[in-house]
Amino acid sequence: MHPPLTLHRHPMCAEIIEEFQKCHLDHPVAKFFGECTELKIKLDRCFRQEKAVKRKANFEESKKLKERLQVLRKESAEK
């Protein structure tokens, strides 16, 4: 299963999403027998890469916020 295939939410995977959707339109019955499986695998890999990039960015942001919070706590403890 994959998340909703909206292009604006997955800009890194937009090309693969379009190919996958086209495959499903071009092969309405064959899609159930593995016609689009290769694209599905590519799509899953792309989503994993996209998630890893987002996770790393969120972690970096989290570290910055924790540092700011520690500085604020230290300042308020000194007062």
From TrEMBL:
The residues forming a coiled coil are: none
Keywords attached to this entry: Disulfide bond, Mitochondrion
Note the superkingdom of the native organism.
Answer: Eukaryota
Give an example GO cellular component term for this record.
Answer: mitochondrion
- UniProt keyword Hydrolase present: no
Grouped into one coarse class, the protein's main location is: mitochondrion
Query: Is Lipid metabolism given among the entry's keywords?
Result: no
Subcellular localization(s) per the UniProt record? Mitochondrion
Query: InterPro entries from the xrefs?
Result: Cyt_c_biogenesis_Cmc1-like
**PANTHER family hit by this protein:** COX ASSEMBLY MITOCHONDRIAL PROTEIN, COX ASSEMBLY MITOCHONDRIAL PROTEIN 2 HOMOLOG
The entry's family comment says: Belongs to the CMC family.
Name of protein: COX assembly mitochondrial protein
Question: Which organism does this record belong to?
Answer: Hibiscus trionum (Flower of an hour)
